[in-house]
């Protein structure tokens, strides 16, 4: 039995709590990050709050005797001053109301003591997840890569959705294309998978596209086109 305390009630905290509650080998407690006057002891306390709040919460728990970890991709493990510190970072996008299959979520783990790393691995395995031992520098690079692979990509979907809306075209018509692109890069490199007018240097098509876009969209289109051609 692993005793787990989740500190926070945002998206990541809620998804982790829901998953842990289903596991009979996890004894779970959850408290608000504002209720730190009397913090229950646990094997692992998970600070699942916004990046800006991690240091503030951790500073109130410097004397915590259990393993104290955060869930951030970009915050250094040293932000936690407790004797036993670490990172339990689920590399996934969490949206309120959208269920997450943790068997498909890689966890990036960090701890200064091997026994604590083993504990975090056991905790990730309790969710059916795959765990990776990743240091803070590696994790920050992974988080940066994830912003390009996920956040920026989703913004491209948003622009594509706007373009479809202009002509009352259902965005779902692009779903198979989106799925195929995501599936393709699991088998070949993204560079090999690149298609479209930019990589073909099809200037005639590029100019036709530019003429249909707003000024802001034109700048973005040309910037990405240049990046594709020079990559």
UniProtKB/TrEMBL annotation:
Residues 105-227 form the DUF2520 domain. It comes from Polaribacter pacificus. InterPro entries: 6-PGluconate_DH-like_C_sf, DUF2520, NAD(P)-bd_dom_sf, TM1727-like_C_sf. It comes from the Bacteria. This is DUF2520 domain-containing protein.
